């Protein structure tokens, strides 16, 4: 009983601080979904291109499950790779223009596995202050020294790299498109930093893959620096509408990670249905249809950013579908979110520890499937509630 009392006290504390989270049940098709019998407009999904609902992906999943079963049965090192795993890795490497690719079961597993495999005691990891939790967790798990540099500040990073020398491995790691801010890392400067200070550069493009750059190759491609990045990580669970993750890298690093990335070695591999859907999604993203969807998304992004600006919010002119509306404290943020839900708009509040204290926000994400009138209505409602709460 005493143990439950400890847990209850912790929950009470979270509630007092406005940081308690609970799950909502949502059904139906993006971007209109059902919540407790009401139809609401989804404005916080990472299914940017709408591929999660695409008939080609659904059919590929169903057929792969029918042909190969529901599970892969074990880790690939134990019971072998399926041809689908290998086909998907070949396609990823071709798409990214790298020697090799390696699948992971999720972006979280890729970041924790890769970072902790590369770095250990005696090594140094240089990580952007606003990096995703899975990068931070990988760094903590590694046992390496963790040096966090100010957000997107390559000059400060350079100084820190000069200060923290040593003979061990040095790894710079950054989100490419920041998941909670929607801004883009200065990858060219970070690549210079890596080259001049003899470090590996790893880029997490969970959110840029599929939507930015030629054929949706991602942020490094958009910025013309893909060849200067040693490890490009991406996910299938966001713009690609499926599940899982990959890294695109050299054969040398792939061989090493197959041996040392614990989330790869000690985990059952992706099931056939998921792998087949990812393969179809990738082919779609690379095709003319993918280009069309990216075009629609870009139009919606530009429209929605402009509409929010028109309501009085300070919104930078960026090509990315992640648009934060900064509120500050968690209680007002959650009140903002719940008033929007009463107006049939599902827009989650984001609070610490996902973002730093004092920067709680609504994180809007635009999809290719949103219709202009839906975005117009959403912006009007967000503006109205923002004024009610004194946020604008
Ligand atoms: C930047 C970033 N990296 C990694 C992840 C983890 O990816 P996954 O959802 O596939 O575990 C996410 C997703 O939340 C993310 O936003």
Structure description:
It contains 15 helices and 13 strands. It is globular and about 55 Å long. It has helices at residues 2-16, 55-68, 76-79, 83-96, 107-118, 133-142, 154-163, 187-196, 219-222, 251-260, 262-265, 272-286, 288-310, 330-342, 372-388, and strands at 32-35, 38-42, 100-104, 124-128, 145-149, 170-175, 200-204, 231-235, 245-249, 322-328, 345-346, 349-350, 360-365. 45% of the residues lie in helices and 16% in strands. The longest helix has 23 residues, at 288-310. With 392 residues, it is an alpha/beta fold. The strands form 3 sheets. A 7-stranded mixed β-sheet has the order 3-9-8-7-6-4-5, sandwiched between helices. It has a 3-stranded mixed β-sheet with strand order 1-2-11. It has a 3-stranded antiparallel β-sheet with strand order 10-13-12. The structure holds pyridoxal-5'-phosphate. Pyridoxal-5'-phosphate (PLP) binds at residues 106-108, 111, 132, 134, 175, 179, 204, 206-207, 235, 237, 245.
